[in-house]
Write a structure and sequence with these properties.
By secondary structure, the protein is mainly beta. The protein contains four helices and 16 strands.
Length: 274
């Protein structure tokens, strides 16, 4: 948004700077606070504290910003909300931003295996002081949470054991963890679709190391009578199966525990083991 040039803009000589300094506000960056985070976006507050040395209230007249991630310009704008600074005291100033991860990773590349990426926040704040409008530049930096959704997919299926009453299926689940640290998958509850039949079960918690692609074997015990003759025949002859898995799981990430929903399908031959 383009702003008009203020009618009074403080331009100080070196001598005037010393005289005016006691009346000028000062800005300190206190850091970035994470309000909320999901697999889709991060909602953050960039927090400042402004000191007003004047015995009268001073108002914020303008506040523009430019945010870059890994040195790439990502977001810019201005905050239209005004702020009245307490006389002879300090006031908090918060810039809230919501960043969609799809847009972040579309702009920032080659950061796989990192839990945090660099951010830089710069701009100017304008204040209406007794001496006129004062523009104070700022240039701050820090770490931004690099959360990515792990990818899960059905890789294979085996029947290591079966008899006339029960069959044990082992479903190979491929898990791609792009973070730098390991992820813990807990409370894994799933429905497994086998052709036109469905089986519900749970899996024990498992870890996936950071920056890796792992295969997790999930055993499922089913009653043969529940499979049906056609499905049992496919299992015992190694014919392709239409496999589908819908699941919910809690994932422990570097930024807390987040729920994840999985919906995967595949057409695989079930290997019969001796």
């Amino acid at each position: 948004m383009t702003r008009s040039v203020p009618a009074v803009l403080l331009v100080l000589t070196c001598a005037a700077c010393e005289e005016a300094e006691p009346f000028l506000p000062t800005v300190a960056f206190e850091g970035m606070a994470l309000r909320d985070i999901s697999w889709d976006q991060a909602n953050v507050d960039f927090e400042f504290r402004v000191e007003n040395p004047n015995p009268v209230a001073v108002s914020l007249s303008s506040f523009d910003y430019n945010l870059n991630l890994e040195t790439i310009d990502f977001l810019s704008g201005d905050s239209p909300d005004g702020l009245d600074l307490e006389p002879s005291g300090s006031s908090p100033l918060v810039l809230p931003l919501d960043l969609v991860y799809e847009n972040v990773w579309g702009a920032v590349e080659a950061t796989r295996g990192e839990d945090l990426i660099d951010f830089a926040l710069s701009g100017q704040m304008g204040f209406n002081t007794p001496l006129g409008e004062v523009m104070l530049p700022y240039n701050e930096g820090g770490d931004f949470p690099a959360l990515r959704t792990p990818k899960l997919s059905i890789q294979g299926a085996r029947v290591p054991q079966f008899n006339i009453t029960t069959a044990t299926l082992e479903i190979d689940l491929g898990v791609d963890n792009p973070h730098g640290t390991s992820l813990l998958f807990d409370g894994f509850a799933f429905d497994l679709a086998l052709n036109d039949r469905s089986v519900s079960s749970t899996a024990v918690p498992f870890d996936v190391p950071g920056d890796s692609v792992s295969t997790i074997s999930i055993p499922v015990e089913v009653q043969v009578v529940d499979l049906g003759l056609a499905l049992f025949g496919a299992l015992t002859t190694g014919q392709p199966l239409d496999l589908g898995m819908s699941a919910t799981v809690d994932v422990t990430t570097p930024f807390g525990v987040l729920p994840l929903t999985i919906d995967e399908t595949g057409n695989l031959a079930a290997e019969i083991l001796p």
